[in-house]
Write a structure and sequence with these properties.
The complex is a heterodimer of chains A (about 290) and B (about 280).
Chain A: H1 10-19, H2 25-41, H3 46-62, H4 71-87, E1 98-103, H5 110-123, E2 128-133, H6 140-151, E3 155-156, H7 164-174, E4 180-185, H8 193-206, E5 210-216, H9 222-234, E6 238-242, H10 251-260, E7 264-268, E8 276-278, H11 281-288
Helix pairs in contact in A: 1-2, 1-4, 2-3, 3-4, 5-6, 7-8, 9-10
Chain B: H1 4-20, H2 25-39, H3 50-67, H4 73-79, E1 84-89, H5 96-109, E2 114-117, H6 126-137, E3 140-142, H7 150-163, E4 168-171, H8 181-194, E5 198-204, H9 210-221, E6 226-230, H10 240-248, E7 252-256, E8 264-266, H11 269-277
Parallel strand pairs in B: 1-4, 1-5, 2-3, 2-4, 5-6, 6-7
Antiparallel strand pairs in B: 7-8
Helix pairs in contact in B: 1-2, 1-3, 2-3, 3-11, 5-6, 7-8, 9-10
Classes of the chains: A alpha/beta (about 290), B alpha/beta (about 280).
Bound molecules: guanosine-5'-triphosphate (2 copies), potassium ion and magnesium ion (2 copies).
Potassium ion (K) sits at the interface of chains A and B.
C-alpha cells in the first residue's frame, strides 16, 4: 500500500501568487493553507502553525507590497520573517575554555554529538576532554571511550559505577587542565522522575556554561513538551538538531526552541565525528518549508 | 441526511487532534477524506449527534487500519521451523538493540532458546552494548570484530542456531538512514544471505511525520513484515504507529514502554485507538 506522494512543495503554492496582480484574500488563504501543510509536515507544533498562519495572513493582506517586489516575493518575505522570529540566528558557542553538558531524550544523538563537539573544538585549536556520565545504558562507556580514542581526546569514565554525580565530580577534577570539558549524560524523558533528578544533581555539581539539548530531527509533537521539561529543570542554553542527513525536517526542534526561548547551535548530518555543521537559519527554514 | 458542511468542521477538529497525536499529515488527510466520503450523503438517525457519528466513524476507520493483519508473535514462533530468524531494522537510535534484548528476555521466560547476532558492527560500542544485554539475560551471542561484515555475523548466528537446535535467532543491525543507498544495499544483503523469517521495523513513538518516509523506504528495500513502536512511555499517544501501519500495511507487533526488559507489550489495536482518542 503505497500512498501517492502528495506534492507538498511550497514552491507550488507560491506559484499561485506569480500571476496575481494584487493580493486578494482568496489567494492568500490558498497560499497560507499550503504553508500550513508544509509546516505541519515538517513537525512544527500544531498550535504554533495555527498562530503562524494567522499572522502571515494578516500581514500579507494588510501590508502594502513594497516597491520593486511582486506579491510572491512579498509573501515569501513575510513567511521568512515570521519563521526567523522563531528560530533566530542561532547560538554561537564561543571558542574559549568552558564546560558543556549534553542532555536529551534516549537515542537522540548525545554521545555521537559529544564526539563531534570534541572534534570541532580540537580543530579550532582548543583542548577538549570528555566525561561519560551515562551509567545506565549498556555499552555507553565503551561507545564514548572508543569515539574519544579515535580522536585522541582525553576521556574520563568509571565503567560499572552507577553513581553518575560522583563520576562527574571526580572527572572534572581529573580533566581540570583541559579547555573544553564536555559531559555526556544518559538519555531521559520528562516523565522519568529519577533520571530528571539525577540530571539536576549533575547540573548542580558541574555548573556548566552551556547545556545543549540534542533533538532528533525527526521528533514530532512531543518536542516542545520535552524541551520545556528539560528547560524547567536545568535550563537549556542551546539546541543541537541531529540526524538532519535523512528526510526529517526538524520542525519539532524549531518548536522546542520557541517553547524554551533558546536557539540552535549546530546540526548533525551523519554518524562520524566530522558530521557536524554550524546552524544556518536560511537553509534550515528553506528545508522546513520543503523548498 | 449528512451534508459536507455538517461534517467538515468536526472533521477539521478531529484532524487537528490526530496531528497532535503525531499521525503524519498525509495519513491523517487520507483517513479523514475516506471518512468524509463515507459519511456525506449517509442517513443519520433522528436525534443522532453529528459529532458523535463523525468521531465514531473516524475511530472505526483507524481501528480498521490497526486491526488489519493482526499478528500473534508467539504463534508465529511456534508455527515456524526452528530456528526462526528475526532481523531488526530501522533508522538510528530508535531502540532496535534494546527491543532485541526485551524480546530475548521474553522468549527466554517462555523457555525458548535464543541466539543473538551482533549485526551492528559499525557503531562504536554497539557490540559491547548487545554483549552486556546477552550476558544479563543469559543467551548466546554471536559476534565478529568491529567493522566486520554484518551479513556474515547473521549467517553465522543462524548456522550456530541450526547446529544447536535453538528456537530463535534475533539479529541486530546498525541504525541507518533510509536515504543512505549503500547502507540500504547492505541491509538487503543481510536479508538475502540469512533469509529471515521475519523482518521487524523499529521506530519510536516520539517520531513525527518522517515516520512515513522511513517506513515506506525500509519496506521497499527489504520488505518488512511488521513493526515495533518504542518509547511509548515518553509519548503515550504515539500516532506514529498509525502512520507506519497505514504506510506499510503491516501489523504493529510490540510496543516498547521503557528501558527495562519487562517494558515490552504485545500490541493491542483497541487499547491503542482508545489512547489516541482519550
Ligand atoms: N545519520 C545520523 N545518525 C546519527 C546522527 N547523530 C547520531 N546518530 C546515530 O544515532 C544513534 C544514536 O546516537 P547516540 O549518540 O548513541 O544517542 P544518545 O542520545 O547518546 O543515546 P542514549 O545515550 O541511549 O540516550 C547512533 O546510531 C548514532 O550513530 C546524525 O546526525 N546522523
Ligand atoms: N524510554 C524508553 N527508552 C527506550 C525504549 N527503547 C529503547 N530505549 C532507549 O533508547 C536508546 C537507544 O536504544 P537502542 O536500543 O540503542 O537503539 P538502536 O535502534 O539500537 O540504536 P542504533 O543501533 O544506534 O541505531 C537507549 O538509551 C535505550 O535505553 C523505550 O521503550 N522507552
Ligand atoms: K531517536
Ligand atoms: Mg549516549
Ligand atoms: Mg543498536
Amino acid at each position: 500500500m503505497v500512498m501517492d506522494k502528495l506534492s507538498n512543495s511550497l514552491q507550488d503554492a507560491l506559484k499561485k501568487l506569480v500571476g496575481a496582480g494584487r493580493i486578494d484574500e482568496r489567494t492568500v488563504n490558498d497560499v497560507v493553507k499550503d504553508i500550513q501543510r508544509a509546516l505541519l509536515q515538517s513537525d512544527v507544533n500544531v498550535k504554533m502553525v495555527m498562530q503562524l498562519s494567522k499572522s502571515i495572513k494578516e500581514r500579507a493582506l494588510e501590508e502594502d507590497v513594497p516597491q520593486g517586489m511582486n506579491p510572491r516575493e512579498h509573501v515569501i518575505r513575510i513567511v521568512y520573517e515570521e519563521l526567523m522570529k522563531i528560530v533566530g540566528e542561532g547560538t554561537d558557542i564561543p571558542l574559549k575554555p568552558q564546560k558543556i553538558m549534553m542532555i536529551g531524550l534516549q537515542g537522540s544523538g548525545k554521545t555521537t554529538t559529544t564526539s563531534k563537539l570534541a572534534h570541532y573544538f580540537q580543530r579550532k585549536g582548543l583542548k577538549p576532554a570528555v566525561i561519560c556520565a551515562d551509567t545506565f545504558r549498556p555499552g555507553a562507556y565503551q561507545q564514548l571511550k572508543t569515539l574519544c580514542e579515535s580522536l585522541n581526546v582525553p576521556f574520563y569514565g568509571e565503567e560499572g559505577n552507577p553513581d553518575a554525580v560522583g563520576i562527574v565530580e571526580r572527572g572534572l577534577a581529573e580533566i581540570d587542565k583541559y579547555d573544553v570539558k564536555i559531559i555526556d549524560t544518559a538519555g531521559r524523558h520528562s516523565l522519568e522522575n529519577d533520571l530528571i533528578d539525577e540530571m539536576e544533581r549533575i547540573h548542580a555539581i558541574s555548573s556548566p556554561d552551556y547545556k545543549l539539548l540534542v533533538l532528533d530531527a525527526g521528533i514530532g509533537q512531543q518536542a516542545s513538551e520535552q524541551a520545556k521539561a528539560f528547560n524547567d529543570s536545568i535550563g537549556i542554553s542551546g539546541v543541537v538538531i541531529s540526524k538532519l542527513d535523512g528526510t526529517a525536517k526538524g520542525g519539532g526542534a524549531m518548536s522546542a526552541v520557541a517553547a524554551t526561548d533558546s536557539s540552535i547551535a549546530f546540526i548533525g548530518v551523519g554518524e562520524t565525528p566530522q558530521d557536524l555543521e554550524k546552524f544556518e537559519a536560511d537553509r534550515f527554514i528553506s528545508r522546513l518549508l520543503g523548498m | 441526511i449528512l451534508d459536507e458542511a455538517d461534517v467538515e468542521d468536526i472533521l477539521w477538529e478531529l484532524e487537528m487532534s490526530l496531528l497532535e497525536s503525531d499521525i503524519a499529515i498525509s495519513v491523517s488527510e487520507k483517513i479523514v477524506t475516506d471518512v468524509k466520503q463515507e459519511l456525506v450523503g449517509s442517513r443519520k438517525k433522528i436525534g443522532g449527534n453529528t459529532s458523535k457519528i463523525v468521531e465514531d466513524a473516524l475511530k472505526k476507520s483507524i481501528n480498521d487500519v490497526m486491526s488489519a493483519n493482526v499478528f500473534d508473535f508467539d504463534e508465529f514462533i511456534d508455527s515456524h521451523e526452528k530456528p526462526v530468524n528475526i532481523v531488526f531494522v530501522g533508522i538510528n537510535g530508535t531502540g532496535k538493540t534494546t527491543s532485541i534484548a526485551k524480546i530475548a528476555h521474553r522468549l527466554k521466560s517462555m523457555n525458548k532458546s535464543v541466539v543473538i547476532a551482533a549485526g551492528d558492527t559499525f557503531r562504536a560500542g554497539a557490540i559491547d552494548q548487545i554483549a552486556v544485554h546477552a550476558e544479563r539475560i543469559g543467551v548466546k551471542l554471536i559476534k565478529h570484530q568491529e567493522g566486520g561484515d554484518p551479513a556474515a555475523v547473521v549467517y553465522d548466528a543462524v548456522q550456530y542456531a541450526k547446529a544447536h537446535d535453538s528456537d530463535v535467532v534475533l539479529s541486530d543491525t546498525a541504525g541507518r538512514m533510509h536515504t543512505n543507498v549503500n547502507l540500504m544495499a547492505q541491509l538487503q544483503k543481510i536479508c538475502r544471505v540469512s533469509a529471515p523469517d521475519l523482518v521487524l521495523f523499529v521506530d519510536e513513538a516520539v517520531a513525527g511525520n518522517d515516520a512515513v518516509e522511513r517506513a515506506e523506504q525500509f519496506n521497499e528495500a527489504v520488505p518488512v513484515d511488521g513493526s515495533i513502536l518504542t518509547k511509548t512511555d515518553a509519548d503515550s499517544k504515539g500516532g506514529a504507529a498509525i502512520s507506519i501501519a497505514y504506510i506499510t500495511g503491516k501489523p504493529i507487533v510490540f510496543l516498547g514502554l521503557g528501558q527495562e526488559y519487562e517494558d515490552l507489550k504485545k500490541f493491542d489495536p483497541h487499547w491503542f485507538v482508545d489512547q489516541i482518542f482519550s
